[in-house]
Specification:
The complex is a heterodimer. By secondary structure, chain A is of the alpha+beta class. Chain A has a single domain, classed as CheC-like (Chemotaxis protein chec). Chain A is about 45% helix and about 25% strand. In chain A, strands 1, 2, 3, 4, 5, 6, 7 and 8 form an 8-stranded antiparallel β-sheet that branches. In chain A, β3 and β4 form a beta hairpin. In chain B, α1 crosses α2. Chain B has one domain: 60s Ribosomal Protein L30, Chain: A. A 5-stranded mixed β-sheet of chain B has the order 1-3-8-9-10, with no helix packed on it. Chain B is about 15% helix and about 35% strand. Chain B is an alpha+beta fold. In chain B, a hairpin with a 5-residue loop joins β8 and β9. The chains are: A alpha+beta, B alpha+beta. Chains A and B meet through β6 and α5 of A and β3 of B.
């Protein structure tokens, strides 16, 4: 099964992600009480055997949410944080002096909560645009190699896939040296549904 | 401390791919996948597959992707270069269960391992070493010309040689 996205579908997906990510960036900015820069979102159709070119291999914090709601098993939203960034973030949120250390239980729950708030607003904004319901599952936090996480998520799909659509945008705070990525990995039924709705919206607006 | 060749100088084996040769190879970022290595100790060559799923079903396009086809695919890729089975050694690493809540029902990692082991037995290949299971991702290097050494770096920072 080859995934082909038309150029206007790519644009529509990017715009959808853009709106969602902007909401997530606002949340992060409020948490940090500081400016957060957001990169232009990338939409890529990735051959899974090439995934290691797109997905980082440095051990990092990943807060993962399954998309639930109208479309069952709709895919995943991932918040990716470099380990140093993740520790600085929890220090700021908990009002602690910045220290280099191992992740504690309170770091983990703080990051899950942050992920929860950011991803909820990402999905809320996206779902509003599409006029469907999308709810994040409870968060799953792992500190591991992102490619290994990505691969394990794909293997759980139950369908045998060779390509995936990957949406990614980078959120950074220069002041606090925080670097994070928000990634959306829609499953094929969810992707079809999103594209169908976006096409409708595009037709109405032209 | 063991120094490893940089990843750039190794052949990178992507999800579902396999490679045969004598040059260093690497499977980067393995979670529930399994790196399957069949080493020919007489000729110092071998094959490495990045196995993703237990069963191929109808899809035969990528034999390295599935536990039930990868062993056979490596053996047949050896072609004329193959030694007697007695000179072939198998090693596997991976098959972790990375999530607490998502993957309970499936446990793909465990099924990948089981299925590979069954297929190794079928071909009477000796499994000489493994680093499987757990909850941690791994990066796995294979050096056919260094006696088929396999080096595993786990995401928690620990390392081991198989």
């Amino acid at each position: 099964m080859a995934l082909i996205l038309k150029e206007n579908e790519c644009d529509a997906l990017r715009e959808m992600g853009n709106i969602g990510a902007a909401h997530a960036a606002t949340v992060l900015s409020q948490m940090l009480n500081s400016q957060v820069e957001m990169s232009v979102p990338e939409i890529q159709v990735v051959d899974i055997s090439e995934a290691h070119r797109y997905i980082d291999n440095e051990v990092a914090v990943l807060v993962i949410f399954q998309i639930q709601g109208e479309v069952k098993n709709g895919g995943y939203v991932l918040l990716h944080l470099q380990t140093g960034s993740a520790l600085r973030l929890t220090d700021i949120m908990l009002g602690l002096p910045s220290t280099a250390r191992e992740f504690s239980e309170s770091d983990r729950s703080t990051l899950m909560e942050l992920g929860n708030i950011m991803v909820s607003s990402f999905l809320d904004a996206t779902a509003n645009l599409l006029g469907i319901m999308m709810i994040p599952s409870p968060p799953e936090l792992t500190i591991d190699i992102p490619h290994a996480v990505f691969q394990s998520l794909l293997a759980m799909e139950g369908v045998d896939i060779d390509e995936v659509v990957l949406f990614r945008t980078e959120l950074t705070s220069e002041e606090h040296r925080i670097n994070s990525n928000l990634m959306l990995l829609p499953n094929p039924p969810m992707l079809d549904e999103i594209i169908r709705i976006l096409n409708q919206i595009l037709q109405i607006s032209t | 401390m063991t120094t490893e060749s940089p990843e750039q100088s190794c052949v990178r084996i992507g999800l579902g791919e396999l490679h045969i040769g004598s040059e260093p190879m690497v499977c980067i970022g393995i979670g529930s996948c399994v790196a399957l290595i069949i080493h020919d100790r007489e000729r110092s060559i071998g094959g490495m597959a990045h196995v993703m799923l237990p069963s191929s079903g109808a899809n035969n396009g990528k034999p390295g992707k599935y536990a039930d086809t990868a062993v056979n695919a490596i053996l047949s890729s050896f072609g004329d270069r193959v030694s007697k089975n007695g000179n072939l050694l198998a090693k596997i690493a991976g098959g972790a269960c990375m999530f607490n809540t998502f993957s309970h029902r499936l446990n793909i990692g465990e099924r990948n391992i089981e299925c590979i082991k069954t297929n190794l037995q079928k071909h009477r290949l000796k499994l000489v070493a493994e680093d499987t299971g757990g909850t941690c991702g791994r990066t796995i290097y294979y050096y056919p010309e260094k006696n088929g050494r396999v080096f595993v770096r786990r995401a928690d920072g620990s390392t081991l040689t198989l």
